[in-house]
What does this fold into?
Amino acid sequence: MAIVMIARALAVAGIACAALPAAAQQPRRDLISECIACHGADGIAKDKDVPHLAGQNYAYLVKQMQDFQKGRRPHKEMRVMSRAMTDSDIVDIADYYASLPR
Ligand code: HEC
It folds into this structure.
């Protein structure tokens, strides 16, 4: 079931499964299904106004997501996105994006 959802998310993002790095197949990948549209499945954003997350420092990513969640860093979309994240989601998401090649 999760595989089907991931495949759909990838199809929507227009990215072929074969082009993904091995790390992208890890279990918590469902967490980033909503991030893909802006930040890309590979952490490389298509829009110039969206920051790349691939290969970003792990501790930095954790802090940014906590800051959006607590309102210390303002940004409408990211504040909405961060509201649904648990502490362990934040750790897993940061781990995932930090593991990707820049
Ligand atoms: C609607 C588009 C959109 C979606 C969806 C989105 N983001 Fe973002 N994200 C942005 C933008 C734009 C910024 C830059 C915010 C700013 O200018 O301060 C950002 C910033 C970030 C940052 C900080 C990056 C940095 O270099 O400081 C992180 C981490 C992040 N997003 C994670 C996520 C995660 C995880 C998800 C999915 C749960 C997600 N985003 C979904 C648009 C989006």
